[in-house]
Amino acid sequence: MSKKEKNPYSLSNIYKEMELELIASLRRNFLKHKMEEHAVGFSWEMWQKAKLRNIHQYQLENSSIIYKFKARIKQAIEEVLNHFYDKGYKSTVNVPKDGDNTAAPNQRPPEETQFFGANKKKLDVLIKTSKKDFDDANHAVYRKMDDIYRQTIFKTEFQLSSGALSLGKAIDKAAEEFLEQGINCIAYKSKDGAIIRYVNIADYAEMALRTASHRATLLGEGTKRDELGVHLVFVSAHANSCKLCLPWQGKVLIDDVFSHPSDEYIAKYKGKYELLSVAIKAGLLHPNCRHTLATYFEGVTRLPEPQDEKKALENYNNEQYQRKLERKIRKRKRILEGTVDEDNRKTARKRLRIAQKEMHDFLEKHPEFKRQSRREKIYGTDSKISSKLQNFDESSLKDIDERTILEVDKALTKIYEDYPHMKGIVSEVKLVEKGTAVAELDINNQGIKISLCINKNLTPENASALTKRMYSQYKWTKKPGIEGIVRHEMGHVLNYDYYVQKNHLEYGKPYGDMPLQKLIDDLEKNELATELRKETLKRLGVADTDENVAKYFSSYAKNKSMTNNGEFFAEAFSDYSDTEAKFVFMELLKERMK
């Protein structure tokens, strides 16, 4: 498991992927007989018998899907919990250099005692228990899918009995509740054993492993405190907190849960500070709790600033509303994934767009919250996006908003329609953490390569807001969100390619130093962009100055880049305004590209 995968969300993603494969399996099995309806005529009795007869095959398919994910689930549990335990143990503890609470100079840590190994044993039990819990969850998933299959068959009969629905619409109606909820097979019970509600398996997976990993971190930190002989901790304070945790924010406590203070130590501080065990019983560190504990040194540690409790609770409630909108978007995606009838699929797409707009409106109203695209994903099978892409493989873009991938692909399609010779020049589309996007030119003896890099946090919403803001401030030319951003970078690609072709070079082919140095020299001079800038401003009847470039295009167009006047070329190429300057540049470019 890679470093970035060692987080509680990785298990949720695995279960979301499993859920979508199981939904796809259900849809395949019902869709197959919908097609037979057209081929051989429809008989409900025959269809029902065939579906019941095929249930064994369906069960085998589901068993195979669940088994395929089982090893990944166990590996995720073990690696995530061990990782967070180590992280907690290795976390920096700022021991004060002087003061009443410090040990004597050069005093060694106490010799290992029996309690030093206690937390490692607790971690092993935590891992074992978590694995068993998720084994039970997998069995519940299997039983749930089996029940759904049977229920859908008999509910479809009821829907068809009215004679008003086609088979496809009847199947969709029968499976509607299931597709809305997903695989809701985990029961939450009250203290007396009564079932309160069922929750989705992927949501449960995220909550359970995040809570377990939080506990593993606290066990690791507790082990470190045992070694230091310091057992006071303080609770983190956040600008958003639930009612259970509000009373404990910023409070100092005696850690009698994750470390092992002596009776004398507890007696020394008990009159002054509350026990952590008491706080936990009152609700602190509940499932999904964001609060952490840090070692406290009396007279040295500065406690976090107190938070406005009313505002913290308001922020918490708004955050929970955002989670609700994310669940709604995932629900709409699930419904679209499992819907059979084409008319119903069109309706499902429309409802998905409405749910996404609700999220957009919420974030505009509450700019303090950021969109978390990964929470809206449903991690389906490979057929989702790849079948819609025309210009690149999305395998390196799994952590980005799916809509962004489609927008990038659509932008490239438009450019390739106008400049067919550019198709195939970009060897890959990949993610970066800095900047909005970049056309990356790699020149070495093994070959010339151009990559289009997209910021991993780019979404249609923030791209649109960014381009509007930059245009209103005269920093960028007018651009329609992602399409305009991609066109700017492809302007650089067009500029680079002009010199690759001029030097009679090919992409991916090895070359010696001399032809590559000639290419680099030509790119640095960039006579194409320089001449286009000069001629454009001349036809506009103004002098060739940076001030006029900023006036007629944008302030960014006068910026220096790896090529002379490269930003002018890219900004003018990606200008979506109706100005004379834009049309003059494009006419001149068209003449040069003949």
Shape: globular
Continuous helix count: 19
Which whole number gives the mean pLDDT?
79
Question: Strand content of the residues, in percent?
Answer: 5-15%
Please describe what this structure looks like:
This protein has helices at residues 8-40, 44-53, 55-90, 118-160, 167-174, 176-181, 201-228, 263-269, 276-281, 309-338, 342-365, 402-418, 460-472, 481-502, 513-525, 527-539, 546-552, 566-573, 580-592; strands at residues 184-189, 195-200, 232-235, 252-254, 274-275, 293-295, 426-432, 437-444, 447-455. The strands form three sheets. A four-stranded mixed β-sheet has the order 5-4-3-6. The protein is an alpha/beta fold and 594 residues long. The radius of gyration is 30 Å and the shape is globular. The model is unreliable at 1-5, 33-44, 92-116 and 380-387 (pLDDT under 50). Among the domains are: 3-94 and 114-228, no CATH class; 394-592, no CATH class.
